[in-house]
Amino acid sequence: MSHSERMSFETNALLTPHETLQMDAHMSSSLEFLMENAGAMVARLIRQHFKSCRVLVACGPGNNGGDGYVVARYLQGWGWPVSVAPWKKPQHGSLAARAAQEWTGPIVAFEAAEAMRAELVVDAVFGAGLSRPLPEDVVHFFQHVPRCVAIDVPSGVDGVTGACWGEVPQALLTVALVRKRPGHLLEPATGRCGQVVCVDIGMPEEAFSGLKARYWENTPSLWPLPLQYEQDHKYTRGVVSLYGGAHMPGAARFASDSARHTGAGLVCVSSSEEGAALYRTVLPGCVVDQKTPYDSVKDQRRRVWVCGPGLTFKEVESVLPTLLEAQCHVIADAGALAWADGLPEKLRGVKVMTPHLGEFVRVFGPVRTSRLEAAQQASKETGSVIVLKGADTVIAAPDGRTAINRHATPALATAGSGDVLSGIIAALCASGMPAWEASCAAVWIHGEAGRQAAQAKGGWIVAEDLITFLGKARHAAEKSQKLSINR
Ligand SMILES: NC(=O)C1=CN([C@@H]2O[C@H](COP(=O)(O)OP(=O)(O)OC[C@H]3O[C@@H](n4cnc5c(N)ncnc54)[C@H](O)[C@@H]3O)[C@@H](O)[C@H]2O)[C@@H](O)CC1
Ligand SMILES: Nc1ncnc2c1ncn2[C@@H]1O[C@H](COP(=O)(O)OP(=O)(O)O)[C@@H](O)[C@H]1O
Ligand SMILES: [K+]
């Protein structure tokens, strides 16, 4: 059994609406029980987060609405003043219609005036599977809502891509059922969800049979890190190489320092005569030489390369084709991405690409779908892992596995932060981790280092600060994987 099969639908796996439908089909005889549990759990969370107040539950015609009727019943049972505003009635004989029948409390019109009278509105109009624009009257209604708790997603959020089908409600709290959705982690939806809490509704294990997770929240359980062994030497830890440009040495310095601080055994920097003299001074911990790329790749220990940080078009041109020809494991960033301007095929053979959105568009053209789908498509087409950077970094593998990282901080938005990330990925690739796992781990460690550095430095950091926290950040991941580095 492969690693990804073993971890199918662990708690950090994310559920798409399509997978929810498959589960529901499998569990058809228990759906009423699941809806009852879902409604009860949402009501309990509301009771935990809010004082008793006038609640209006806005219910749609589907099962999301069905959950809403159950919430209303529980809150009313605890003595809260509750009304229900149906946007449309559930279809006769449906599960939601049965839940609606059991609601014997007040029913009011689905109107802005009613929304304004409430102190809290429960959004149970549409779940995560909506695939058409939000109806006007729904938009208008939610524009007048004081405080909102959403079931599954705020109505109008696409549960997979995080896109919004119009102006979606702004929730304070969103209750995810069974597992989070990819959309909960992706902008712009994340900004509309408020706090996302996932609840267990008693979904049995068997409901997951036949399903294979494709999306995960990026957490350390996704990528076991290699341990330190008594017998380790620098070459077993792994060698990272990079070509140091003659004009922008800072970027190569950030990438090489980051690789070393993350655990690479050795970092080798090749450069021109002019560059090598400089790198010998600024990188005392690295082996610096003046070898041509052609000669460098003859050394079988130098298989993993960072290519791009601080390189001009000409420098990339003189290095990257040789590295790819020699089938080295290349992490392509910055200058290497600019070199491929509109011609992604030039990067064929690269293991990992790390574009931010601007670089992504430069290589692959405008994003016509969503960032998520564009990264997946680019990964499939090129055969490279795509790390599409941002506040919600997407890490897409050519086989479809996709992780979304929220373990980060806006303190990372500082020049050189991307060079640091490429060095971390290289160090983990050099340690023997497969490209997707190494990329996911690197993005998490980068985020953790950013958080720790920001805490230590009062919130504002530069790339140099980030680098000094990489060892601690890797250790934090190891601790949460319960790995001991002093076995
Ligand atoms: N397995 C699970 O995870 C469970 C999910 N449950 C709930 O089930 C929900 C999903 O239920 P559904 O698949 O019924 O989805 P929805 O509740 O989102 O309902 C969609 C319904 O709205 C209609 N609709 C959508 N847009 C419309 C428009 N513009 N005009 C008119 N009608 C429109 C559709 O035809 C469909 O009937 C989840 O959000 C969750 O709340 C719970 O009941 C418990 C179990
Ligand atoms: N607002 C933010 N929240 C979380 N992470 C961020 C944010 N802004 C930037 N980052 C992260 O910081 C890094 C910036 O990389 P990049 O844009 O390549 O910068 P540079 O080229 O200056 O090194 C990426 O890993 C990105 O995900
Ligand atoms: K909803």
Automatic annotation (TrEMBL):
Key words, A-Z: ATP-binding, Isomerase, Kinase, Lyase, Metal-binding, Multifunctional enzyme, NAD, NADP, Nucleotide-binding, Potassium, Transferase
MF-aspect GO terms: kinase activity
Residues bound to (6S)-NADPHX: 63-67, 127-133, 152, 251, 310, 356, 419
Its EC number(s): 4.2.1.136, 5.1.99.6
Binding site for K(+): 64, 123, 155
Cofactor(s) needed for function: Mg(2+); K(+)
Stated name of the protein: Bifunctional NAD(P)H-hydrate repair enzyme
